Amino acid sequence: MNEFSIVCRILGTLFNRQPQDPVLQPLLTMIAEGKLKQSWPLEQDALLDRLQQSCELPAMATDYTALFGDDASVPGCRSDYTGESENDIRQFLTERGMPLSDGPVDQFGSLLLAASWLEDQAAEDEVQGQIVLFDEYLLPWCGQLLGKVEAHATTGFYRTLTMITREALQALREELDS
Question: pTM of this prediction?
Answer without folding.
Answer: 0.93
